[in-house]
Amino acid sequence: MLTIKDVRKQFGSFTAVEGLNLEIPKGEIFGLLGANGAGKTTTFRMILGLLTPTRGEISWNEKEISYETSDLVGYLPEERGLYPKLTVREQLIYLGQLRGMSRTLIQEQTEKWLKRFGAEEYLNKKVESLSKGNQQKIQFIAAVLHRPELLILDEPFSGLDPVNVELLKNAVHELKKEGTTIVFSSHRMEHVEELCEHLCIMHKGNSVVHGSLKDIKRAFGKKNVSVKADFDLRYLKDTKGVLKHRLTADGITLQVEREEVANDLFQAIQAKGFVRKFELEEPSLNDIFIEKVGVVHE
């Protein structure tokens, strides 16, 4: 288990993280979210032992994370962290040996992951010659090559097309099944909803939402109603209890303050014409993020 207990980090008079408390069990994918400057990267760097908390404790399996335990941790940073002049082979051998791996094991793992990502042809190419998406795949391989117990993924899908996003998501699911604990951050809320059972939203160094995704959505209270019809639906926005609305090409999406308002909307469209869709939906994580943080996560 990764335990973050009453952690605070100050840089002079500036507080980057304030009183953060998290417990992340083995084999779980945990989402750590927040807008730029929320304190996510500072938290990641404290977990990695690159920064020392001003106050509080961070431990892995009840032991302090240090250079002695660093081989148990894998990290994929948001920024590119590869050596551009080295070939992929040279890169992975160097980073694997830093983790204490033998050349034989490095070769086995390299072949396995390159084959999985359909990237065998890049083995002897310099990193700088690869596309942004292929560099991201190599950087992911570097983060998991030594089979870490704890894996930190900061914007792992950056620069990837939809096909490669699916490849990477499948790899993350497989690592979870093998028992790897994964702390995951992304600007794409749909990826977080798909991958994470529990999450924390940070804002200005503080945790403003924390818990299971299901409980967070249930506690939010507000719902979304999606309507598609062959007639003008704009009048629905004036229904009592409608908080927001967004017109689409063939309908309207409305945020309502409680589930009962959906019944009023349903009554309002009866006998008006042909209705193609009427669906009551849970609030999206993006809705919750905007409500709690006050900005669009982009």
How would you sum up this structure, described in words?
This protein has about 300 residues and is α/β, with parallel strands linked by helices. It folds into two domains: about 1-215, Rossmann fold; about 220-280, Alpha-Beta Plaits (2-Layer Sandwich), CATH 3.30.70. Helix content is about 30%, strand content about 30%. The protein is built from nine helices and 14 strands. The strands form three sheets. Strands 6-7-8-3-9-10 form a six-stranded mixed beta sheet, with helices on both faces. Strands 2-1-4-5 form a four-stranded antiparallel beta sheet, covered by helices on one side. The protein has a four-stranded antiparallel beta sheet with strand order 12-13-11-14, with helices on one face. Strand 7, helix 5 and strand 8 (about 180-185) form a beta-alpha-beta unit. The longest helix is centred in the middle third of the chain and has 16 residues, at about 160-175. It starts with a strand and ends in a 5-residue tail after the last helix.
Please count the beta strands (DSSP E, at least 2 residues each). Answer: 14
Q: What is the CATH architecture assignment of the largest domain? A: 3-Layer(aba) Sandwich
Instruction: Sum up the overall morphology in one term.
Output: globular
* Structural class computed from helices and strand pairing: alpha/beta
Low-confidence stretches: none
Offer a few descriptive terms.
14 strands, single chain, Alpha-Beta Plaits, 2 domains, 298 residues, four-stranded antiparallel β-sheet, Rossmann fold, alpha/beta, globular
